[in-house]
Design a protein that fits this description.
Number of helices: 16
Number of domains: 3
Region (Disordered): 383-403
Largest sheet: 3 strands, parallel
Oligomer: single chain
Mean pLDDT: 83
Radius of gyration: 30 Å
Protein name: EH domain-containing protein 2-like
CATH topology of the largest domain: Rossmann fold
Domain EF-hand: 341-376
Subcellular location: Endosome membrane
CATH architecture of the largest domain: 3-Layer(aba) Sandwich
InterPro entries: DUF5600 (IPR040990), Dynamin_N (IPR045063), EF-hand-dom_pair (IPR011992), EF_Hand_1_Ca_BS (IPR018247), EF_hand_dom (IPR002048), EH_dom (IPR000261), G_DYNAMIN_dom (IPR030381), P-loop_NTPase (IPR027417)
Shape: elongated
Helix content: 40-55%
Number of strands: 5
CATH superfamily of the largest domain: P-loop containing nucleotide triphosphate hydrolases
């Protein structure tokens, strides 16, 4: 293997491992000289994310690639699929390619859950066919978010791996103890060993029922049979109840105590995400997702963006019979709940709209609340703080002086 150590901000948070491309069977044996699927399996057990790359214009899953993918079995939760260079095909063809990819992957993985497939063109070249530019941007954001959250999710994954290994240890202890107990003390050891290995699926089922163990905790039966061939069953250790109790205590109690610590770590370091490089490029300036939409519409306009619909909002406002030019919280609430938005959302809109914090809404604040309600109903998010361009004109000087 060839490795490189580069000074890059992205690499401060994650390590990238790029495996060589898949070769034909003959070329693989000549060029590699090692068991490539076995190497993939070794890496798959230790990494946090596995990305499979496919080109939309030349989709192909060869027998060799299928074998390599099968080496990832048991790590399906880590696998993401990227359908790259999707700008090289028309929309109709892209739909066909996507369907063919899902069908092919379904045959290889044979799992009930569908793998997450990101569609886009992850390179720096101009888009050949730009019809699906919006889709590519959204898919890129989702993939980058997935990768950026790796450091935050790493501790949780390690904890899950610890639980998985602990359960596997418990199962192995029961299997080894069962095999030792059934071995004769003097004669016929070799024949009995072969019988037990052949009956291993039955032994698995018996242990599962007797100790109420999930089938998913058991190792691969065929691989276990292969490994047991070289071992002397008489040298196996019997089950130690005290150690099994300690293991069960760890799974039921100790692991549960670790979960709040992970949550506390996330609260103390909320910015624990991958940064730098292309990740920063997707969040800069007007290219940030939704920069000119929803609550951020009208950022560059001199006129207050709410003005264009204010006459409509004013009609509603005065029909609600304001007192001294203001609506009480009760009257405003009775109208706001008719939008069928949840109270948590309406409460956030109220907080953003009641600029002067007097517990009431004047006509501009009511128009702002109505605008934010429409923004939310259109499927956009709400800002955590009111952007400067949304502050009502009559409140801007007042807000500026307070700041």
């Amino acid at each position: 293997f060839m490795c490189a150590h580069l000074p890059n901000q992205v690499l401060e948070s994650i390590s990238l491992i790029d495996t060589p491309g898949i070769l034909s069977g003959a070329k693989q044996r000549v060029c590699r000289g090692y068991d490539f699927p076995a190497v993939l399996q070794w890496f798959a057990e230790r990494v946090d994310l596995i990305i499979l790359l496919f080109d939309a214009h030349k989709l192909e899953i060869s027998d060799e690639f299928s074998e390599a993918i099968r080496a990832l079995k048991g790590n399906e939760d880590k696998i993401r699929v990227v359908l790259n260079k999707a700008d090289m095909v028309e929309t109709q063809q892209l739909m066909r390619v996507y369907g063919a990819l899902m069908w092919s992957l379904g045959k290889v993985f044979n799992t009930p859950e569908v793998l997450r497939v990101y569609i886009g063109s992850f390179w720096s070249e101009p888009l050949l066919i730009s019809d699906n530019r919006r889709l590519f941007e959204l898919e890129e954001q989702d993939l980058f978010t997935d990768i950026q959250n790796l450091p935050r999710n790493s501790a949780l994954r390690k904890l899950n791996d610890l639980v998985k290994r602990a359960r596997l240890v418990r199962v192995h202890a029961h299997i080894i103890s069962h095999l030792k107990k059934d071995m004769p003390s003097v004669f016929g050891k070799e024949n009995k060993k072969k019988q037990l290995i052949n009956k291993l699926p039955v032994i698995f089922a018996k242990i599962q029922l007797e100790h109420h163990i999930s089938p998913g905790d058991f190792p691969d039966c065929e691989k276990m049979q292969e490994l047991l061939m070289v071992h002397d069953f008489t040298k196996f250790h019997g089950l130690k109840p005290r150690m099994m109790d300690i293991l069960d205590e760890m799974l039921t109690t100790d692991i549960a105590k670790l979960m709040p610590l992970l949550r506390q770590e996330e609260i103390e370091d909320p910015d624990q995400v991958v940064q730098g490089g292309a990740f920063d490029g997707t969040r800069n300036g007007p290219f940030v997702e939704g920069a000119a939409e929803g609550a951020y519409e009208g950022m560059d306009d001199e006129e207050w963006v709410v003005t264009k619909d204010k006459s409509k909002y004013d009609e509603i406002f005065y029909n609600l019979s304001p007192m001294d030019g203001k609506l009480s919280g009760t009257k405003a609430k009775n109208w706001m709940v008719t939008t069928k938005l949840p109270n948590s959302v309406l409460g956030k809109i109220w907080k953003l709209s009641d600029v002067d914090r007097d517990g009431m809404l004047d006509d501009e604040e009511f128009a702002l609340a109505s605008h934010l309600i429409e923004v939310k109903l259109e499927g956009h998010g709400l800002p955590s703080d009111l952007p400067r361009h949304l502050v009502p004109p009559s409140k801007r000087r007042q807000k500026g002086s307070a700041e």
